[in-house]
């Protein structure tokens, strides 16, 4: 079986597994303890912070360790909302955001906040003009994802940051960077981001570890009360082994980005070209990240195609993993103006850096065979 | 942006006549050391300048590193072109395009024909290069007196260099060209700034830190090591001597002379630092004293404390305001570390009312009354642990079993 669901999660680097195990065994101290065990753990934590900061081009003091992207996104959005609610209670985001952003914003509407969910065009893009036009006097936060987790669509975060900060320097700008880091160049300062979320397990690090960049000077209301860990922004004993594992994965992903992008883009182009030759499939094409190919099989339930591909030895995904067990059509595709049949038939193929040319050959073959097989079984289609 | 080289210009030491070569060599060595993490980059020396040939390495990062090199005043990222007018113009236009000029930007070309065989004179070139640029970029206006952009073109035999940016660097004298001194490094804001200021005047610095385990924590010591590591970012590498001070310090607490205890401690610190300086071949001591800041920094205290050493005592911050010092600390990257809240040995036994006007005769008498003081001082020197800190690298001389680099 070949795994093509890297946008959902990735197999950890072998070195990350070894490191995490080794640190669990040897450095179990609480980094807040005063004795040697605590100090040792604290040293490891500190170095992890430095390594992550270097990979992101920011200061170590701007890194808040979390349990993953969902927590980072929630902390960014609710943390800013609660901290700055005296400035205003309006948030701007996009209708195609990841559930951890989308639902966090929706939840805030129950607390008296107002949220503008910007529509996207047929390509899934939102423009800087749209963002700025949605801004009101009481807007405190704009949250935009770098790369869409379902379709791989790349948002113009640079333009949005530039336009936003030029006109409204006081509004905070959060970028969900989970699917972008390691695949596309990342420039947190250049994008003028105040907050940036990352998750370790999308980068071949361990699950349960993530980080939130919080620009110097920005305050966030902590969602967990307790000790003063992570500058008071996130109480709770830090998971030192996982965080060290994450720092390694983040460093490697950052260093290999250009090479990774080059290889993945080649595969992506091959798969895209193939999808275009199969008349039943409709590519949801446009400006995309190198690791995701997304297409629909209008009229075919995506799940059927997924299982057919699975029988042929290829694991892919429908929608995002987070919402794939829900029966509804994809919210992201609907926001892009796809009809219900198209939005229910979306398939996502996502690559990892260790795939080979041969894996892609197998994938393409499986795709051709699956469509042919389903086509011949006309009555199964609906 | 795409650049081929960085041009590094030197500062005031170029006035130094005969010693100039020695100064240039020191800068060159320092640059070499800091370029280690960029294996693609190489160095080329010309009279009065150094070029870093980038070889595909990221120029922004390298500039950041080289801005810390003492003796370098400015840095310009340079594009190279073959020595041929068409190619020079093309490269100049490419550079202007990357600069993305806004409407109304003023501009001039400043060409220099270093290689006199080249067919066009400097004057001619100003015109020959300027005209096509003005044609292509309608937004530009010419201003030969105070242009926003001065596009400089140097024609040499091997290649033409084209650049416009001039980025300020730290200046001063190359590291180590004015000898070596011992810096008394505490965890506070001042002493790291004193160290940096000394390095900028061409002094090589070794750090001496006094710790009082178990009265101060291991973390206080780590914090000072981190501070020294920031200084190593400027020096390439730096030595730090960690002196166990508990025994000496507690000997003073037994004398019952509370208000003099800081004076006594300081004198012993200078003695220990002097012994280390002699061992390491350093010719001066550097402290972070700033006149009047605390009791031990009144003129009267400085007099009594300073008499415990025969070495010149350099106090680069002596006439500075706390605010000025804080600003430098922020700029050089030590401030955030300095304000971490760990006690060090100086804050530990601070009496309720330390004297601002100690009496040398009394102090000497108390010292004489502690029978084993000299032995304690010698023991402290003997038990001193020395670490070598590399800029951005691991710590030498210490068994770093906690941090295994392959974990990260």
Structural class of chain B: alpha/beta
User: How would you name the oligomeric state of the polypeptide chains in this document?
Assistant: heterodimer
**Topology, number of strands of chain B:** 16
| Mean of all residue-level pLDDT scores of chain B | 89
Globally, the shape of chain B reads: elongated
Query: Which percent bin holds the helix content of chain B?
Result: 25-40%
Number of strands of chain A: 12
Low-confidence stretches of chain B: none
How widely separated are the two ends of chain A? 27 Å
Fold blueprint:
The complex is a heterodimer of chains A (382) and B (408).
Chain A: E1 2-3, H1 14-26, H2 36-56, E2 63-66, H3 69-83, E3 90-94, H4 99-109, E4 114-118, H5 128-134, E5 139-145, H6 157-167, E6 172-176, E7 195-199, E8 210-214, H7 240-277, E9 282-283, E10 292-296, H8 302-311, E11 314-315, H9 331-335, H10 340-344, E12 346-350, H11 357-376
Parallel strand pairs in A: 1-11, 3-4, 3-5, 5-6, 6-7
Antiparallel strand pairs in A: 2-8, 7-8, 9-10, 10-12
Chain B: E1 5-10, H1 20-34, E2 42-46, E3 49-53, H2 59-66, E4 72-81, H3 85-99, E5 106-113, H4 122-136, E6 141-142, E7 149-155, E8 160-163, E9 167-168, E10 180-184, H5 190-200, E11 204-211, H6 218-235, E12 237-244, H7 246-253, H8 261-280, E13 285-286, H9 299-306, E14 313-314, H10 322-332, H11 335-338, H12 345-348, H13 360-369, H14 373-382, E15 385-390, E16 395-396
Parallel strand pairs in B: 5-6, 5-7, 10-11, 10-13, 11-12, 13-14
Antiparallel strand pairs in B: 1-3, 1-4, 2-3, 4-8, 4-9, 7-8, 12-15, 15-16
Helix pairs in contact in B: 3-4, 5-6, 5-10, 7-8, 8-9, 8-14
């Amino acid at each position: 079986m070949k795994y093509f669901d890297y946008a959902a999660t990735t197999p950890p680097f072998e070195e990350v597994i070894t490191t995490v195990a080794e640190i669990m065994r040897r450095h179990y101290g609480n980094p807040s303890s005063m004795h040697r065990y605590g100090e040792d753990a604290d040293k490891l934590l500190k170095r992890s912070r430095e390594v992550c900061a270097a990979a992101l081009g920011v200061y170590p003091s701007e890194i808040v360790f979390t349990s993953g992207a969902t927590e980072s996104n929630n902390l960014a959005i609710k943390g800013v909302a609660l901290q700055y609610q005296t400035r205003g209670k309006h948030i701007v985001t996009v209708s195609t955001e990841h559930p951890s952003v989308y639902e966090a914003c929706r939840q805030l509407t129950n607390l008296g906040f107002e949220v503008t969910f910007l529509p996207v065009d047929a390509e899934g893009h939102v423009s800087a003009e749209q963002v700025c036009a949605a801004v009101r006097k009481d807007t405190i936060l704009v949250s935009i994802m770098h790369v869409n987790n379902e379709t791989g669509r790349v948002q113009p975060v640079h333009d949005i940051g530039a336009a936003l900060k030029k006109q409204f320097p006081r509004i905070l700008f959060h970028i969900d960077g989970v699917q972008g880091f390691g695949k596309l160049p990342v420039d947190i300062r250049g994008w003028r981001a105040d907050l940036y979320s990352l998750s370790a397990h999308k980068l071949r690090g361990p699950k349960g570890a993530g980080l939130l960049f919080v620009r110097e000077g920005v305050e966030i209301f902590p969602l967990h009360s307790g000790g003063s860990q992570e500058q008071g922004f996130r109480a709770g004993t830090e998971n030192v082994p996982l965080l060290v594992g994450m720092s390694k994965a983040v460093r490697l992903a950052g260093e290999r980005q250009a090479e990774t992008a080059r290889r993945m883009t080649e595969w992506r182009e091959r798969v895209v070209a193939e999808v275009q030759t199969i008349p039943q499939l409709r590519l949801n094409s446009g400006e995309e990240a190198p690791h995701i190919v997304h297409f629909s099989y209008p009229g075919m339930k995506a799940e059927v195609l997924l299982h057919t591909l699975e029988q042929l030895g290829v694991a892919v995904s429908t929608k995002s993993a987070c919402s794939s067990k829900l029966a509804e059509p994809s919210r992201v595709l609907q926001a892009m103006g796809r009809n219900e049949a198209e939005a229910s038939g979306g398939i996502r193929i996502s690559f990892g850096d260790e795939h080979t040319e041969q894996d892609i050959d197998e994938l393409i073959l499986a795709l051709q065979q699956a469509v042919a097989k389903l086509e011949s079984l006309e009555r199964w289609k609906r | 942006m795409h650049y081929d080289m960085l041009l590094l210009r030197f500062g005031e030491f170029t006035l130094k006549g005969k010693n100039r070569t020695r100064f240039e060599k020191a800068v060159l060595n320092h640059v070499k050391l800091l370029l280690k993490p960029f294996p693609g980059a190489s160095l080329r020396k010309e009279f009065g300048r150094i070029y870093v040939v980038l070889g595909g390495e990221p120029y922004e990062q390298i500039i950041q590193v080289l801005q810390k090199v003492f003796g370098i005043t400015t840095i310009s990222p340079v594009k190279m072109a073959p020595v041929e007018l068409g190619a020079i113009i093309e490269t100049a236009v490419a550079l202007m395009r990357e600069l993305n000029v806004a409407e109304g930007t003023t501009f001039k070309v400043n060409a220099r024909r270093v290689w006199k065989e080249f067919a066009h004179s400097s004057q001619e070139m100003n015109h020959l290069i300027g005209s096509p640029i003005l044609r292509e970029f309608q937004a530009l206006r010419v201003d030969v007196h105070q242009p926003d952009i001065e596009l400089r073109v140097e024609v040499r035999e091997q290649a033409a260099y084209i650049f416009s940016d001039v980025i300020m660097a730290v200046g001063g004298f190359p590291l180590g060209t004015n000898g070596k001194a011992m810096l008394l490094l505490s965890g506070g804001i001042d002493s790291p700034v004193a160290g940096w200021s000394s390095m900028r005047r061409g002094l090589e610095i070794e750090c001496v830190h006094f710790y009082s385990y178990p009265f101060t924590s291991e973390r206080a010591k780590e914090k000072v090591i981190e501070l020294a590591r920031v200084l190593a970012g400027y020096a390439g590498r730096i030595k730090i001597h960690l002196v166990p001070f508990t025994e000496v310090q507690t000997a003073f607490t037994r004398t019952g002379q509370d208000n003099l205890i800081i004076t006594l401690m300081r004198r012993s610190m200078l003695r220990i630092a002097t012994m280390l300086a002699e061992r390491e071949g350093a010719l001066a001591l550097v402290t972070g004293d700033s006149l009047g800041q605390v009791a031990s920094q009144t003129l009267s205290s400085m007099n009594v404390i300073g008499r415990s050493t025969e070495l010149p005592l350099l106090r680069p911050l002596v006439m500075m305001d706390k605010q000025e010092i804080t600003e430098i600390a922020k700029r050089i990257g030590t401030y955030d570390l300095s304000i971490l809240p760990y006690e060090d040995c100086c804050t530990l036994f601070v009496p309720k009312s330390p004297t601002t006007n100690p009496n040398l005769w009394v102090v000497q008498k108390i010292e004489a009354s502690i029978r084993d003081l000299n032995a304690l001082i010698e023991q402290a020197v003997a038990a001193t642990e020395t670490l070598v800190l590399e800029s951005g690298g691991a710590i030498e001389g210490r068994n770093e079993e906690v941090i295994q680099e392959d974990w990260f």
